[in-house]
């Protein structure tokens, strides 16, 4: 009987954990990003590379928000007056800075955050 109670307690604990909101971003592929860009759904598409990198090469539909402008003061994101319930898609050059940015956006209360795996270096779609 004691073993049964332990097993039931563990099952309840595990199911409670799985029902909790994830505090993680999701890596997405080029194919997934292409679908998002073509979708009628609302997304914020944010490129966290420097302004110079962004001006040299960019994915159409993305806005530039240099990671180095908010990484030391993440609360600055809140001054942008963005709806935190709208999914955010973040990209950078190779996928490293965007991981940092994704974690910051999550910490600032954004509910759904995506990271373009491999960044613009791995992107095989249209660029400007």
CATH class designation: Alpha Beta
- Under CATH, the topology can be stated as Oxidized Rhodanese, domain 1
What kind of sheet is the major sheet?
A: 5 strands, parallel
What is the distance, rounded to the nearest whole angstrom, between the alpha carbons of the first and last residues?
67 Å
- Report the portion of residues in β strands: 5-15%
CATH superfamily: Rhodanese-like domain
> Count of helices?
5
- Supply the number of structural domains: 1
Overall mean pLDDT: 87
Low-confidence parts, pLDDT < 50 over ≥5 residues? 13-21
Could you state the order of secondary-structure elements as H and E? HEHEHEEHEH
Report the strand count.
5
CATH architecture: 3-Layer(aba) Sandwich
Radius of gyration over C-alpha positions, nearest whole angstrom? 18 Å
Give, in spatial order, the strands making up the sheet with the most strands: 1-5-4-2-3
Envelope shape: globular
Helix content: 25-40%
Classification by helices and strands? alpha/beta
């Amino acid at each position: 009987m004691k073993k049964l109670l332990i097993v039931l307690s563990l099952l309840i604990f595990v199911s409670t954990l799985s029902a909790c909101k994830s505090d993680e971003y999701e890596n997405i592929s080029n194919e997934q990003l292409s679908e998002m860009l073509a979708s009628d759904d609302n997304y914020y598409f944010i490129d966290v590379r420097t302004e110079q990198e962004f001006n040299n090469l960019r994915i159409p539909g993305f806005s530039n928000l240099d990671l180095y402008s908010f990484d030391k003061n993440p609360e600055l994101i809140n001054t942008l007056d963005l709806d935190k319930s709208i999914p955010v898609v973040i990209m950078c050059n190779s996928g490293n800075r965007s991981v940092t940015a994704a974690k910051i956006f999550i910490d600032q209360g954004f509910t759904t955050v995506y990271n373009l795996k491999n960044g613009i270096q791995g992107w095989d779609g249209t660029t400007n």
